Amino acid sequence: MRSRRLYAIAKTLLSYGLDDLIPAKWLPWSIRIGRHALFWLPNRHKDKTPGMRLRLALEELGPVWVKFGQMLSTRRDLLPPEIAIELAYLQDRVAPFDGVAAKAIIEKSLGLVDISEQFADFDTIPLASASIAQVHTGTLWLANGERKDIVIKVIRPDIRRTIDADLELMEAFAAVMARHLPDGRRLKPKEVVKEYRKTLLDELDLSREAANAIQLKRNFEDSDLLYIPTVYSDYSRHNVMVMERIDGIPVSDVEVLKARGVDMKKLAERGVEVFFTQVFRDSFFHADMHPGNIFVAKDHPRNPRYIGIDFGIVGTLNREDKRYLAENFLAFFNRDYRKVAELHVDSGWVPQHTNIEEFESAIRTVCEPIFEKPLAEISFGHVLVNLFNTARRFEMEVQPQLVLLQKTLLYIEGLGRQLYPELDLWKTAKPFLERWMNEQLGWRAVVRSVKENAPYWAEKLPELPNLLFQSLDSQQHLQQQLEQQHKAQLRQQQQASTSSFWGVLAASGVVSTAWLTTESESMVWPITSAAITVIICTQAWRTRPRVDKH
């Protein structure tokens, strides 16, 4: 089966002429000969651009490769701009699997004899179908007798086998690329596939997605910005997730939103605020915010609220990354390119030997033209490509923890451009970041730190005398151990010195005995010398350094 799949992949790649994307001089002779041997698989799409050929080939290869292309579209540092932009158009066009099979999966996972025991009005025709799972509608009977309109997400049967097989082939291709491509070290194909494997396998576990949804809902409880549907975790498993059915308008239906009187400017600004709140307040953000996963609530059109779904991919940032990001954003907004360059060095994103003046000038060249323009005239994708190309000159490697953040920023760009092209992203984001930085560095940060640590301090305060005594006692014991070790070391040095002295005398005795034996006419002197040498050797043996077994 693996050989058949390998042939199908090779056939697809060659029929779209993707071998042309790699210069022949980069490939070993064996691969070049193998390509000529497959003369019956010519490029059948010479009229299309390289990016379009790659996109079409991935769509033909199936869902695993489509998702891989979607991930690559966010890595603008690895691909030429025209190819990355084309890959961003990839969509999951996957036929649904049999609804009766989905019903059987739900029954088995929840231990039901029949689905009607727990769900009424279950629709075997899926509401939506994607590469990894599909969604069905129904009604959930709660323990208190209530009925809730829900959706049930079901993982495709046998999808894990397909994913594992294709991932093995991807890893094999990545190893070949890393070994033979001149730019293989920078492109890091094996690391990219490893990162993709983790992301994809995480999406297969709906228990993880349910936990992500619960966390996001808690973060935005009673918020006017974002609503997260309720997950019914008692009825969810690793391959089944039951969630509240939402009634919203797809964010891509701009005409419908306008017809309902939605404040598009406020909606666009709240999209930016939702993103920065997730990243800088919560350090936990929805990292798959494409239009298909975002809706707008129908109530209160003048005070619009987003609804998010599909939480298989989330991102997190540690405190240091978050702080450096905020400082970088503020420095960009203030056009302080020197500060941006210094922050990159301080954070370790570029090497310490980087010439700050040259780096500052390069950043200014990329960023200065984009300021004081409405969003409609700014392409963040283009800016990111230029920034990555600039950073590459200064040996900057893309930070893995920031890849999802970059992807989400691109989604925010597209969302803002679609909803309100005149949106000034800089003016919308800058006050939020300045407020956040003040909270992190100002007196508010001190007060918050005291509040956060007060319970811990109160708990440990009664133990303080004991802790102090234990610390002093351990210091005393440590000092005694150090003194004993020092004395033992001095003894060993003395023993080594004494042993060396007797060893030198013993060697001299052996030499003297040998000389007297050959030169002396009487045997008295050699015998006397030999006797003395034996005595000296015995003393050298007795004074040899001994290894302490304790």
UniProtKB/TrEMBL annotation:
<dbReference type="InterPro" id="IPR004147">
    <property type="entry name" value="ABC1_dom"/>
</dbReference>
<feature type="binding site">
    <location>
        <begin position="127"/>
        <end position="135"/>
    </location>
    <ligand>
        <name>ATP</name>
    </ligand>
</feature>
<dbReference type="GO" id="GO:0004672">
    <property type="term" value="F:protein kinase activity"/>
</dbReference>
<dbReference type="GO" id="GO:0006744">
    <property type="term" value="P:ubiquinone biosynthetic process"/>
</dbReference>
<dbReference type="GO" id="GO:0005886">
    <property type="term" value="C:plasma membrane"/>
</dbReference>
<dbReference type="GO" id="GO:0010795">
    <property type="term" value="P:regulation of ubiquinone biosynthetic process"/>
</dbReference>
<keyword id="KW-0808">Transferase</keyword>
<protein>
    <recommendedName>
        <fullName>Probable protein kinase UbiB</fullName>
        <ecNumber>2.7.-.-</ecNumber>
    </recommendedName>
</protein>
<keyword id="KW-0812">Transmembrane</keyword>
<comment type="function">
    <text>Is probably a protein kinase regulator of UbiI activity which is involved in aerobic coenzyme Q (ubiquinone) biosynthesis.</text>
</comment>
<keyword id="KW-0831">Ubiquinone biosynthesis</keyword>
<dbReference type="InterPro" id="IPR050154">
    <property type="entry name" value="UbiB_kinase"/>
</dbReference>
<feature type="active site" description="Proton acceptor">
    <location>
        <position position="288"/>
    </location>
</feature>
<dbReference type="Pfam" id="PF03109">
    <property type="entry name" value="ABC1"/>
</dbReference>
<keyword id="KW-1133">Transmembrane helix</keyword>
<keyword id="KW-0418">Kinase</keyword>
<comment type="pathway">
    <text>Cofactor biosynthesis; ubiquinone biosynthesis [regulation].</text>
</comment>
<keyword id="KW-0997">Cell inner membrane</keyword>
<feature type="binding site">
    <location>
        <position position="153"/>
    </location>
    <ligand>
        <name>ATP</name>
    </ligand>
</feature>
<comment type="similarity">
    <text>Belongs to the ABC1 family. UbiB subfamily.</text>
</comment>
<keyword id="KW-0547">Nucleotide-binding</keyword>
<feature type="domain" description="ABC1 atypical kinase-like">
    <location>
        <begin position="90"/>
        <end position="344"/>
    </location>
</feature>
<dbReference type="GO" id="GO:0005524">
    <property type="term" value="F:ATP binding"/>
</dbReference>
<dbReference type="InterPro" id="IPR045308">
    <property type="entry name" value="UbiB_bact"/>
</dbReference>
<keyword id="KW-0067">ATP-binding</keyword>
<comment type="similarity">
    <text>Belongs to the protein kinase superfamily. ADCK protein kinase family.</text>
</comment>
<dbReference type="InterPro" id="IPR011009">
    <property type="entry name" value="Kinase-like_dom_sf"/>
</dbReference>
<keyword id="KW-1003">Cell membrane</keyword>
<dbReference type="InterPro" id="IPR010232">
    <property type="entry name" value="UbiB"/>
</dbReference>
<keyword id="KW-0830">Ubiquinone</keyword>
<keyword id="KW-0472">Membrane</keyword>
